[in-house]
Write a structure and sequence with these properties.
6-stranded parallel beta sheet, 16 strands, Rossmann fold, 604 residues
Length: 604
């Protein structure tokens, strides 16, 4: 809650205090004036009688009837008690604030619980609240400076998430998602296992109290999705690879728990559009320059490689070269090679030692001979970062440079091609914040679809229509129906592969690069038919029916037919989609392999 908007927002109790003071002042002035206008009293008596109004007692002025009371005194008679009641309510709210929060929390349903109100947790809570989610926060430090800001937004705050009693108070068993952002991920496995066990037991106890024993058994395994913030990107990637496939040595981490990293979220947002625009570059290479180092530099390199690998192999694409300009560039690339060995198969990494200013040198022998297509300046000092960005615009023909920093600084920057972004807040926008592994997978499916549906033969991108229901929109503008469709498709990938006799396993972060298994035509045909039937079930469940033409308003589709009767174009697209399964999984660090001898076909 350290954003500009949140900092400028006055806390609710402070506003109420000012309103109470204004009412009291108005009542006092009007009361004194009214008593003096009525006559027969001294100034001291007028003040005393006015103060009595705040105790709900009224002294009638002498020698005057009630119907002849001055208007000022009549107003004071009602304003003073109102100020008293409001003051009492304000005091009660301050004294019993924790109790109020506990009552609100205990009766919450369908909310998001944010554990930890540090810098990241407070931003998460405020962003989710602004996006329309009902948010409840848990913070064990009663002196945390962000508690007051959270409460000013109407977010209840209770104690330590690691205790079952506090989880009970937060009504965690009835939440739709729990976001853990409390500090470093040191003993994260044990903490999350305990957290999930507590949530399961809470739900089971709730069912037992209601007298439904069968429901108690069922709910003991049904917990809200737990999304854990992991600051280290390599560790986050390793933990995330356990989500689709249960890891034998980590039984506590299953589909109930997922992981996120803000640097990864930033990289996704910065690169999603850029990657697709490169589809029509042609021969040669696309050069991405990163000036600086750190977690965001790691995230940009890994995400760029993933996006590049995510382009369909059927399309001609240029090579990707990533240039890192930093004094520790070589160390950064060594970490990338160790933690993400698959990156080397998607792009060429080049380290340029020395300060980031090397990239802007007027001496062309000191920098790469190629010009950048995209550049990111990741230098902490704001003035220095802006100067580097401006020089990069002067010395190269790059159309735009993204600079990490304070967006409010943009007003002081004349160059319109220089775009500033706050890395932390950029990665914690509500639109990407709650991305779990399946959501990421779903977005990859949508990217795959739009590349087939919108990229013309010459590589240029056909614009989406103005129809808000058009499924070819960018993900952020995509109708929720099509987002749900992609999520449903993502969740069917592993079951479809297993039905075909294939196994899926995660690779260790420091292990070998995943190999892309190519499925044979018989396997693709069987899997495509199952995927088509899944799609039919989803579309039918959402009100679509077979029709002679595709009409999103009438919800008709000519391919809502059994597999054998669907058009060849629809079947070809579905075959292409399932053929991409192994590559998309490899992109996320999963290896597909033939499981025994039961496969419908064999990997070619």
């Amino acid at each position: 809650m350290e954003s500009g908007d949140d900092a400028r927002a006055a806390p609710a109790l402070v506003r109420t205090t000012w309103v109470t003071a204004a009412l009291a002042a108005a009542a006092f002035v009007l009361g004194v004036v009214g008593y003096l206008e009525a006559g027969g009293v001294s100034v001291a008596t007028a003040v005393y009688n006015t103060l009595s109004l705040f105790t709900l007692s009224f002294a009638m002025p002498p020698h005057i009837s009630e119907s002849a009371l001055p208007v000022t005194l009549e107003l004071a008679r009602f304003l003073a008690p109102a100020a008293t009641v409001l003051a009492a309510a304000t005091i009660a709210a301050r004294v019993f604030r924790d109790q109020f929060d506990r009552v609100r929390a205990r009766h919450s349903r369908g909310h998001v619980v944010v554990c930890g109100l540090g810098r990241v947790g407070s931003i998460i809570a405020s962003r989710l609240h602004a996006a329309g989610y009902r948010v409840l926060a848990i913070e064990r430090d009663p002196n945390c400076v962000n508690i007051r800001s959270a409460r000013s937004l109407g977010i209840p705050v209770v104690g330590d998430a690691r205790t079952r009693r506090i989880l009970d108070r937060a009504s965690a068993a009835n939440a739709v998602r729990l976001v853990w952002s409390a500090g470093e991920w040191v003993e994260g496995q044990a903490v999350v296992d305990s957290l999930v066990d507590n949530l399961r037991e809470n739900r089971a106890q709730l069912a037992r109290r209601r007298g439904d024993r069968s429901r108690a058994v069922e709910t003991s395994s049904a917990v809200p999705a737990c999304l854990v913030r992991v600051r280290d990107l390599a560790l986050c990637t390793s933990l995330r690879r356990r989500v689709l496939v249960q890891d034998r040595d980590a039984p506590g981490v299953g589909p109930d728990v997922d992981f996120f990293n803000e640097a990864e979220n930033v990289a996704q947002r910065l690169l999603w559009k850029a990657t697709r625009s490169f589809a029509g570059v042609g021969d040669g290479s696309v050069d991405l320059w990163i000036l600086g180092s750190g977690a965001l530099a790691e995230g940009l390199i890994v995400q760029a490689a993933r996006n590049w690998w995510g382009l369909p192999e059927s399309r001609t694409r240029p090579a990707l070269a990533i240039h890192v300009f930093s004094e520790d560039a070589a160390d950064l690339i060594a970490r990338i090679d160790a933690s993400w060995p698959e990156v080397a198969g998607a792009c060429r990494l080049e380290a340029h030692g020395g300060p980031p200013e090397v990239a802007t040198s007027r001496d062309i022998t000191a920098r790469p001979k190629v010009e950048p297509h995209v550049a990111f300046v990741l230098v902490e000092a704001q003035e220095r970062a802006v100067q580097i960005g401006l020089r990069l615009l002067d010395e190269t023909s790059i159309p735009r440079v993204a600079v990490a920093g304070d967006p409010d600084f943009q007003a002081r920057v004349v160059a319109t091609r220089l775009e500033l972004f706050d890395p932390l807040r950029y990665g914690l926008e509500s639109g990407v914040l709650l991305f779990d592994t399946y959501e990421l997978f779903a977005r990859m499916f949508h990217e795959h679809y739009t590349l087939h549906a919108r990229v013309r033969g010459d590589g240029s991108l056909e614009p989406a229509s103005d129809d808000p229901l058009d499924p070819k929109h960018e993900w952020n503008a995509l109708d929720e129906l099509w987002r749900a469709s992609n999520r449903d498709a993502a969740r069917f990938v592993v079951p479809n592969l297993r039905a075909a006799g294939f196994g899926v396993e995660r690779l260790a972060a420091s292990g070998d690069s995943p190999q892309v298994v190519r499925l044979d035509p018989l396997t693709i045909e069987a899997m495509a038919e199952r995927e088509h039937e899944r799609w039919r079930r989803f579309m039918t469940a959402h009100g679509f029916r077979h029709g002679s033409k595709r009409d999103l308003t009438l919800r008709t589709n000519p391919d809502l037919l059994p597999w054998a009767e669907a058009s060849e174009g629809a079947r070809d697209y579905t075959r292409t989609t399932v053929a991409e399964y192994t590559r998309l999984l490899a992109q996320l660090g999963y290896q597909v392999h033939v499981d025994g001898g039961t496969a419908e076909g064999r990997a070619s």
